[in-house]
Amino acid sequence: MTLRLLLYSITLGILLSGCHHQPSESREDLPLIVKPSQNNIKVLFLGNSYTYYNALPKVFAKLSSLNGKKATVKTIARGGVRLTDHSKNESLESLIRREAFDWIVLQEQSTTPLTNQSQMFNAIRSLHHWSKAKKSNLLLFLFWAREYSSTLNVKLGDQKYFERFSNSEEAQSTLTRIHKMIADEIKCEIAPVGNVWQQVHNKNHRLQLWESDRSHPTKVGSYITAMVFYTSIYNALPIRHLATCPLNHIELGLIEKIIRRVVLERNSFWNDLGYKGLFRR
């Protein structure tokens, strides 16, 4: 009798242990807001050359398709355009109010957050107001700082870029703080592309992310950007990669680790928990 009870206890223990498995990462890391269906989405990209360089929206759509998802993308982007220009476009307003975009990606002109923060914030507020008509999710494209060079002749008011900032990391920190402020105000999400770039650059200087102008993305930079958008929107890393992927297996492994750490493991930070406590020194 004692032996039977012992065997029964062992068997029951084995069966119960099989029922307790680790929850999947995608379920644990779901953001605070409800996301649309992840298998069939419509995405509107608004921005300028940072958005259309190397056909970024199409790369994102192809990466989605290769990983079993359908992303229909539309891009409205012209060189040098600011979000304030988009926010004054009546035909764009009509499009946003009419079309049911699941995501609207907003990319500001590269120096505007650093020279005219109020203009940027007011434009985002207007676009956010339009997005409410179809309950579209806004996603701020937190882009990269300029690549460091003591001879870079880009002006921020009456100062050169790297007179105001001692290095790219300092500039990136400021861009992050500014994007986080408006994201928390209107309760929208952020795709922290620039933060990923910064860590990739720190880990592997041989990977060229910037073009020779130290501003626009190379094909490597744009592919990493598409990976960040994929991870931010679907809450998971892409498993399959395009045949045109400019990264080798080892480089992809490094970048995936960085994206997991920056995006997935800090999911709540990029999804409107508030910047004040996290930036407090």
What does this structure look like?
With 281 residues, this protein is an alpha/beta fold. The protein is 49% helix and 11% strand. It contains 14 helices and 7 strands. Helix 4 (56-66) crosses helix 12, helix 11 (193-203) packs across helix 13 (249-264) and helix 12 (219-234) packs across helix 13. It is globular, with a radius of gyration of 22 Å. The model is unreliable at 10-36 and 273-281 (pLDDT under 50).
Output the structural class.
alpha/beta
Tally of extended strands? 7
Per DSSP, the total helix count is 14
Q: Specify the biggest β-sheet.
A: 5 strands, parallel
- Which sequence of strands runs across the widest sheet? 2-1-3-4-7
Task: Give the CA-based shape.
Answer: globular
- What is the N-to-C order of secondary-structure elements (H for helix, E for strand)? HHEHHEHHEHHEEEHHEHHHH
Instruction: Round the mean pLDDT to the nearest integer and report it.
Output: 87
Q: What separation lies between the terminal Cα atoms?
A: 66 Å
From the alpha-carbon coordinates, what is the Rg to the nearest angstrom?
Answer: 22 Å
* Low-pLDDT ranges: 10-36, 273-281
